Structure formats: structure tokens, C-alpha cells
Amino acid sequence: MLKKLSLALSLIVTICFGLSLNASAQAAKTQVITTTDFYGEVAQEVLGSKGKVTSIINNPSTDPHDFEPTTKTAKQVAQADLVIYNGIGYDSWVKKLNGKKYLAVASLVGKKDGDNEHIWYDVPAMISLTEKLATYFSKKDAKNADYYQKNAQAYIKELKQLTTLETNIAKQAKGQKVAVSEPVFDYALTSMEYKVANKHFAKATEDESDPSYSDIKKLQTMINKKQIAFFVQNTQSDSKVIDNMAKLCQENDVPIVKVTETKPKGKTYVQWMTQEFKQVQKIQNN
Fold it and tell me: Which of 2, 12, 225, 245 is most deeply buried (CB count within 10 A of its CB)?
């Protein structure tokens, strides 16, 4: 009887010790919170199996500007080792949630208030973020530094497929003018060496105000006279003015490049960008 009791106690101690070790291992893993899923993808690619990344916004229909954090969100942010956010007004609500350490992508790449906030469309900025995270994780968890660096280099190799695509597009762009519904795609257009011809119109749309009559007439003229290589339409916009411009483009055989501000469900960041960049390439080849 005593032997059986001793064996049972020994088993219980062993199980409890195992559970304790497992809980400690889980607690030791790096916890990262990102405001959006495209930054979450970068973090997870570098972190790999050595931690967990949670993206607060992972629904393409959710506007980061208007997001209202819940108590659960605040708890996740407070417990995270690192909080990654865009900055320059795009997702500033996260700064109110008392995270232990924040990384603003905007600050990392030298952007300031008033600059275009759609930084994820700047592929070199995504490469910079990947490198920064590899350095951060390597310092935090030195014994796995090689692992983080290898992960980062593998992901950077994927991202460089996008910069190569942009370079090839730029060879044929030759500084041509394009028009945009709003400045979502502008960083990519700059890399492709196109010039946005309706910045005032686009800024009004981004600010959720109606473009002026003058701006509308100018854009209509550019479309009617085919003075632009193509029109970039953010398909997540619900503006009737934009819808009418897209219709006018179709009537005048002006190509439309369709983009989104948030990452579509089921696509990686590289797949998302590739699909949009190749629309431009297809227009060039027609």
C-alpha cells in the first residue's frame, strides 16, 4: 500500500514539474503585438517558432483609423514584450494602452507627421523592419540569434522579389503621369518612377472630404484626354466621386489598377503586393 502511495505521489510530482516547466517555457517565449496583420507577418517570419505574434487588426474590412480597442486588446498590449505599430496618426490609439516597449515603423524609416502614412507600400521600409526585428530578437534571446538572422534573410529574399519587380516596371515607366483615388499606392508608384498628377484630389479623398470642383474637373480632363497612363483605385473606398471616375476611365479606355489598403484574407504580404504590381506590368505590356 505504501509503495503504491509513494508511486502515486512520485507521479503527481513529475506531472506537476512537467507542467511547470512547460508553463515557464511558454512564458519565456517572446510575445509580440502588432496593430495590423502585414506587420504581424513580418514579425512572425523573423520570430518563427520562438514566440507568438498577435495582430490586433486582421480583418480586411476594419479601418485602423477608426478601430476602438477593447479591454482584451489593452491586456494583450500590456503583456507583450514588443508592440509594433505604423505611427504618424494611422494607429495612434495603441499608444494609449500602456505597452512595455513600442516600435513605430514610421520612426524606424524616418517618416514624420504629414508624410504619407501607407508605409507598408514602401518595400524598403518592410526590409528595414525585418532587419530591425532580427536585431531586437537576437539581443533579447542571444542563444537563438543565428535562427532569427536566418529567418530574416529568408524573408528579405522574398521581399526583394518585389523590389526587382518594381525596378523592371520603372524601366518602362519613364516618368509617365498617373492619377490615384487616394495616396495608398504612392510609395510603390515612386519606386516604379511614375508621377502622381492629382495629389490635391487624392489628399481630399484620404481626409474623407469631397475633392473641390476644380480638382474633379482637372481629373476628368486628364481621363478624357488620356493624359494619364492609368488610374489607381482603392477598391475599399465608398466614394461616389471615385466610382464615377472609375466609370469615366472605363468609358475612355484608361486602365485601372485596383488596390486595397488592408491585406486581403488568405494572401501573404508578398502575394498581395505582387498581384497589385503585376497589374501595372500588364498595362505596360499591352
Answer: 245
